[in-house]
Amino acid sequence: MRLWGASTSRSLDPAFERLNASLPFDRRLYPQDIRGSIAWARALARAGLLTLGECDAIVTGLDAVKAELDAGAFVFQFTDEDIHTAIERRLMECIGPVAGKLHTGRSRNDQVATDLRLFLMEVWPQIDHRLRELEEALVAQAQAHIDLLMPGYTHLQRAQPIRYAHWCLAHAWALERDRERLREAYPRLATLPLGSGALSGTPFPIDREGLARELGFLSISHNSLDAVSDRDFVAEFLFIAAMIGVHLSRLAEDLIFFTSAEFGFITLDPAYTTGSSLMPQKRNPDALELARAKAGRLVGHLVGFLTVLKGLPSGYNKDLQEDKEPVFDAVDTLEMLLTVLPGLVRTMQPQPERMRGALEETILATELADYLVRKGIPFRDAYRVVSELVEESLREGRSLSALPLEVMRRYHPAFDSDVYGALDPEAAAERRSISGGTGRAAVEAQIRALQARWNRSLQASPCSQEIK
Ligand code: ARG
């Protein structure tokens, strides 16, 4: 049964009916749709449009329909265009004509926008929580190996020694920014469109603030025409999801390199790798490769949906039905990745010998230049002197610290016997005690800063905010 048009209207081409239907995917919104409808029925009763008895009948009926849906006993019909239509049709079958009063002053346009917002309002804290779990796993690695050094890279070339903990935390901070984005976007998401009707606002005296409070929204929309076609919250969610995807992909890429035999810096727990069907010696980092790849579909959802939005005229257009599949897929993709990666990170094992072995001395060339700087030599001159010295050491096949002092002095008279102290990776790392640097105290401070934000973000949880 279709809920629009006169009963005499001609039937639809089944092929079009299939194109038009969103039920195959929007059935996932049934809990939100029923919550929204119950709140709407109560608001209608408060506005005097339903008697208490009618309201009770509708609420009880909706609960019964929900029970059928929960149990998988709900029978969908081919003509159920979408979940909203299906639920209303079933309500009608269960409680009779009084069901026809539920849609008073409401349109599927404000209804569907409300449902999808409610859905994402539930997803938000779940993603937030999982991101934090991954951050915690990275912090646990950092704390367990606080003094472990490894080469830091630029252009994938060994650049300067850094703490392994510093590398772990670099990824944690990126995820923390994603949590911040969720927090900042939440008030815009939690804005209630219900009461907007099809486009111009419902003509009945509905208490929209009360409705918002009942459904957990923080505020109500201010323009009904905007409210029914506003999908900024979808685009923002897809952006945040894409950004998380990019961060996970970059973490995965680092780990794919670091776990390769060439680097050998980290080993993965075998629970996160697969074997090769042909080569018995191989363990493939499939979990990481999939994490790297999934960013592609997340970015695709964002670009695809912005393209749907860009040319739409004011008001609701059926194009907007295309908002749901990318949202659901992004939610599922993130859920999958963020349940695997914390375990992978928690169980991975850094390999100190391999990391230390990669700290060959040319990585300390900057230290030599800084040594000269401390003796008053301008950095550009120091840089040139040290480049020549590095060339000499490569030519002679000797490490920098194996170059005798008189050789060094040939390049610059300011070199003294204390120069060899500059060529120590530990000391080099420790010299970076500036905040944000890789020195031990600075790294410990960043762990505390991150943990303080975890606590702060909990207290500032959007759900505790008062309605504006
Ligand atoms: N299934 C529709 C969607 O997902 C619901 C809104 C339909 N509104 C309408 N005017 N046809 O967007």
Topology diagram in text:
Blueprint: H1 14-20, H2 23-26, H3 30-46, H4 52-71, H5 83-95, H6 108-144, E1 149-154, E2 157-163, H7 164-189, E3 191-192, H8 208-215, E4 219-220, H9 224-229, H10 232-258, E5 266-267, E6 274-275, E7 283-284, H11 286-309, H12 324-347, E8 349-350, H13 352-357, H14 365-374, H15 379-396, H16 405-411, H17 419-422, H18 425-431, H19 440-459
Parallel strand pairs: 3-4
Antiparallel strand pairs: 1-2, 5-8, 6-7
Helix pairs in contact: 3-4, 3-6, 3-8, 4-5, 6-7, 6-12, 7-10, 7-19, 10-11, 10-12, 11-12, 14-15
Bound molecules: arginine.
Residues 22, 26, 82, 108-109, 112, 316, 318, 320-321 line the site of arginine.
Report what the structure shows:
This protein has 468 residues and is mainly α. It has 3 domains: 14-104, Fumarase/aspartase (N-terminal domain) (Fumarase C, Chain B, domain 1), CATH 1.10.275; 109-357 and 446-464, Fumarase C, Chain A, domain 2 (Up-down Bundle), CATH 1.20.200; 361-431, Fumarase/aspartase (C-terminal domain) (Ribonucleotide Reductase Protein R1, domain 1, Orthogonal Bundle), CATH 1.10.40. The protein has 19 helices and 8 strands. The strands form 4 sheets. A two-stranded antiparallel ribbon has the order 1-2. β3, α8 and β4 (219-220) form a beta-alpha-beta unit. α4 crosses α5. It is elongated, with a radius of gyration of 30 Å. Arginine (ARG) binds next to α6. Residues 22, 26, 82, 108-109, 112, 316, 318, 320-321 line the site of arginine.
